[in-house]
Design a protein that fits this description.
320 residues, mainly alpha, two-stranded antiparallel ribbon, two-stranded antiparallel sheet, 4 strands, 84% helix
């Protein structure tokens, strides 16, 4: 039974993270709408932040426990999974449309965040001052994006509103969103604790590095809420929401999660991630933007290539 405990912790952690992520997004969006916050701001900030909440809680938990390799691997692995697995899976169900403004503006912001993150990684660790810079850059990006949407509404503006509509209608009272938010926070806290503990135990059991566990198992687990939401949106005929979710989530994973966690405790960059995985993440990011800009969509064929590439990536990590 003792040998099975880590696997039970992982399964329970994944379930709680998925449920907690769903509850916290619905609760936070409901509260924001009741407070009169515009759908554009809610889609731009709260929806993206909510879908990144599992990554943040897991990375913070791992960092505070001294397993920073899992924290860093979780973020890099999640960004790779978001593009290759989530967008690939959604495109298999229904091609994902990509407007030029979404790719150029939101995709450009994601690329900027990726380059900034890599620049700090090359110093060997993301220090507190670097985390502060990352958070400041995100605030500036959000401000400029909101001002642009306010002056000149576009397809990207509609996409942010559509992201909110996918979460749900404005609630009739305060009770449900407050309860949902509290349940979400509790679920994320316990889910992160069990997933990290189980992941560390499995890594030691099989003799693989904690970075690999972060890049694969933990990253996949924290991406599950986003995968579920994107697949549901695709079934409803809103596959384009997946692109907005991924662009916003990947930006937050880098600037809010790494930036926020590094303010509490500086995050060293594992050698493996420094030498290969951040560059794979950069290549995948640039590849997505080039395909989306040139083709104006992510086709089913591209989806097949993306999902296959993700499976190959995970396989080479596990067997290496």
């Amino acid at each position: 039974m003792e040998q099975l405990l880590p696997y039970l912790q992982i399964i329970a952690g994944l379930v709680l993270l998925t449920a907690g992520g769903e509850f916290i997004v619905r609760g936070a969006v409901g509260l924001a709408l009741l407070l009169g916050v515009s759908k554009v701001i809610v889609g731009l900030t709260i929806v993206a932040a909510g879908t990144s909440a599992p990554e943040f809680v897991v990375s913070l938990n791992a960092s505070l426990k001294g397993t920073a390799d899992i924290a860093m691997g979780n973020v890099v692995g999640s960004n790779i999974a978001n593009i290759l697995l989530i967008l690939g899976a959604v495109a298999l169900l229904k091609p994902v449309s990509a407007s030029r403004i979404t790719v150029v503006r939101d995709g450009g912001a994601m690329l900027l965040g990726t380059l900034l993150f890599i620049a700090f990684c090359l110093t060997g660790a993301v220090e507190r001052w670097a985390g502060a810079v990352m958070l400041c850059v995100l605030i500036v990006i959000w401000y400029l994006t909101y001002q642009h949407d306010k002056r000149q509404p576009s397809e990207a503006t509609s996409l942010h509103e559509e992201e909110v509509d996918e979460v749900g209608e404005k609630p009739s009272g305060w009770t449900k969103p407050i309860v949902a938010t509290v349940i979400g926070i509790v679920g994320l806290m316990f889910g992160a604790e069990w997933l990290v503990d189980g992941g560390v135990a499995v890594a030691r059991q099989f003799g693989v590095s904690e970075a690999v566990i972060g890049l694969t198992l933990v990253a996949f687990g924290t991406s599950l809420p986003e995968l579920a939401a994107s697949v549901v949106a695709a079934f409803r005929g809103h596959s384009d929401v997946a692109l907005g979710n991924v662009l916003g989530s990947n930006l937050l994973n880098l600037l809010v999660i790494i930036g926020g966690v590094s303010l509490i405790a500086p995050i060293p960059v594992p050698e493996q991630i420094m030498n290969s995985d951040i560059w794979i993440m950069l290549a995948v990011t640039i590849g997505l933007l080039l395909i989306a800009y040139a083709m104006r969509k992510i086709s089913r064929l591209t989806g097949v290539v993306f999902v296959t590439a993700y499976l190959v990536y995970v396989f080479q990590l596990v067997v290496a």
